Amino acid sequence: MGNIYQSHLKRMKKEKAIKILTQQSEKLKNIDLSDIRNWDVETKTYLSDFFGKESHQYNHFRMNLTDPRISVQKEKIILFLNDCCNIISNIGLYKPLTENWFSKLPNWIINLGLPALCFISFGTGILFTNNNNYELRKENSELKEKLSLISSDTITNNHKNLSNNPK
């Protein structure tokens, strides 16, 4: 259920959020005192989703509808919800930070890991280059030995057509 709820929030648009807060304002105008707690929880849930639990809007929302001047309190809350709609239309909705594998790692591991990765990659490259150089030097010395054993007359007589007929 939690994943479905979160994915729904990710797709929520500004217009939808404004519509929900407007509906909450309309509900408040006609609400019975017995249903006020449910409305309060529902509205706080919306505010936390739209602005985040650490936001000024969520923390500022407090209602005291047991006050004898209940109509004045309702009007203040409706004005507050209208202000929230303006904030959403101008700034947008709260988007929680998405965590990935790197965000869970401490900074010191990342700071040491990247240079270590470069060092290991560079060292591996040098190792393979040295191995290739060693093999090439060995092959080169073997070919030199073979050439030194063959006389120069044999080379020119056997391969004199090579220079005359290029491919």
Write the layout of secondary structure elements.
Elements: H1 2-11, H2 14-29, H3 36-51, H4 56-60, H5 70-91, H6 107-149, H7 152-158, H8 160-164
Helix pairs in contact: 2-3, 2-5
Can you put this structure into words, describing what you see?
The chain has 167 residues and is mainly α. The chain has a domain at 7-91. Helix content is 74%, strand content 0%. It has eight helices and no strands.
The dominant shape is: rod-shaped
User: Which percent range fits the helix content?
Assistant: over 70%
Number of helical stretches of at least 4 residues: 8
Q: Structural class from helices and strands? A: mainly alpha
Residue stretches low in confidence (pLDDT < 50, at least 5 long) are 1-10
Mean pLDDT: 79
Give the helices and strands as they follow along the chain: HHHHHHHH
Strand content: under 5%
Number of strands: 0
Evaluate the radius of gyration. 39 Å
Largest sheet: none
End-to-end separation: 74 Å
Which characteristics define this entry?
single chain, membrane, transmembrane
Concise structural overview:
The chain has about 170 residues and is mainly α. Helices cover about 75% and strands about 0% of the residues. The longest helix is centred in the C-terminal third of the chain and has 43 residues, at about 105-150.
